[in-house]
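Suppose a colleague, Dr. K., hands you the sequence of a protein chain of 218 amino acids and asks what its three-dimensional shape might be. Before reaching for any lab equipment, you can write down a predicted structure in token form. Begin with the sequence itself:
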Amino acid sequence: MTDLFATSDSAEANFDVMDGAIPVLLVDNIFRDPAAVRDAALNLPFSPGTAHYPGRVARFPPGDPSLTGFLKKVVSLVQAKYLPNMPILPNGHRLSGFRGLDTDFAITDFHPDQLSSNQRKPHVDAVPVFGLVYLNDPPRGGTMFYRQRKEGELTPGDGYPTAEGNEVELCYRVEGLFNRLAIYPGFVLHSGEIEGDWIKNEDRFRNPRLTQRIQFFA
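The predicted structure, expressed as tokens, is then:
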């Protein structure tokens, strides 16, 4: 088997800052052959995601040496470059390492009318650090980050979360460029940028929005 998850020699890592204080690590051209990664992922057996995810998920078989090698590179990068710049966690602790990680592939294909109340509002992740590889050409949207205008439970919207609302305001956006890896803190309120006609017609199945998700457990 070829080294499917080989990283590109032209991969380029850059830091950006969210809301004036929170670092985001962006690595463009992460895979040597992103089209092959996308094709292989789309041929996996997908199953329904969790109650909070508006689509389907799939995993590569455990122990895939190429995927294992890729994840080791990502962990090394995050530990060396991202953690030293990460702010203190909401619990007051500073993150110095990880006890494990998990990765899968996710397709967003729920029509806006199918969304549950939780899927119609921004969310935070159960992990302190989250990674996404955007595997869509043409792009299918990135990730939007918010600050709440006031404390309290958010009210679900009419469909997928949008850039602005009565209860939140956009404070940062990751552009979902093809073959881009984004590393960001999971505790910041965020949502996938799901908009356009494709999510309302058969394009959401024919040419679905695919991401690789990487969760870092503290």
